[in-house]
UniProtKB/TrEMBL annotation:
It catalyses: (4aS,6R)-4a-hydroxy-L-erythro-5,6,7,8-tetrahydrobiopterin = (6R)-L-erythro-6,7-dihydrobiopterin + H2O. It holds the Pfam family Pterin_4a. The keyword Lyase applies. Signal peptide: none annotated. The keyword Hydrolase does not apply. PANTHER family: PTERIN-4-ALPHA-CARBINOLAMINE DEHYDRATASE. Gene3D superfamilies: Transcriptional coactivator/pterin dehydratase. This is Putative pterin-4-alpha-carbinolamine dehydratase. Its EC number is 4.2.1.96. GO terms for molecular function: 4-alpha-hydroxytetrahydrobiopterin dehydratase activity. The lineage of its organism: Bacteria, Pseudomonadati, Pseudomonadota, Alphaproteobacteria, Rhodobacterales.
Amino acid sequence: MTEKLSDATRGPLLEPLFATGWEMVEGRDAITKTFKFKNFADAFGWMTRAAIWAEKWNHHPEWSNVYNRVTVVLTTHDVDGISAQDAKLARKMDGLFGEPQE
Ligand SMILES: C[C@H](O)[C@H](O)[C@H]1CNC2=NC(N)=NC(=O)C2=N1
């Protein structure tokens, strides 16, 4: 069962993400990060890889793409806030971003 992160659990899960550039969204219990790529092909390739994980985990990002940038917002709609699922997907997105693009 997905639960909204409690005050006690969110620190340890979110602090490492803030260190990689994730931020809280103002006025919402959600995290955001803008990923910048070399070009559109790299951006869309990364989105495709991330989408496969999102679908596998049934946890989907709010995101938008303009040329070589992808802005991601992660939150858990079912609990109206951040859950461990968001931290897991954020870590995966960071990991995929660090991998060489084809
Ligand atoms: C019915 C289905 O499992 C839910 O709607 C899932 C799908 N993907 C989801 N993604 C996100 N980010 N939050 C959710 O609450 C969510 N719920």
